[in-house]
Amino acid sequence: MKKTINAPKAPAAVGPYVHAVEAAGLIFTSGQLGLDPKSGTLPEGVEAQTRQSIENLAAVLEEAGSGLDQVVKTSVFLEDIGDFAKVNEIYAQYFKGDVPARSCVQVAKLPKGGLVEIEAIAVKAE
Predict the structure, then answer these.
(1) What are the backbone dihedrals phi and psi of residue 80, each rounded to the nearest 5 degrees, phi first?
(2) Where does the pLDDT of residue 14 fall: very low under 50, low under 70, confident under 90, or very high at 90 and above?
(3) Residues labelled catalytic
């Protein structure tokens, strides 16, 4: 059985998909751009977009009954791998201690001209 999750505190999806799906006690999120949930715009710079992307991810996980501390795997998509260190600096402010496994890759383009997009797999909080 699966349950779809849409989070009102996160920006609307930019395509025909949901914010997350819960199945077998796991939460699978869609990729979260750094879109401001109120204005729908991207802040300037990879640091600001990374911060907002993780805040959006946190909102989705909260709606799903989980949280950043329950994340077991993330995938980070960068428009420029040269931003790796900047993204790591912000990422480390949110994921501390028992950090999740992670992949990080450069992609040709992200939706809406984004500089970073992050998706996650988390366990449902008990």
Answers:
(1) -140, 115
(2) confident
(3) 104
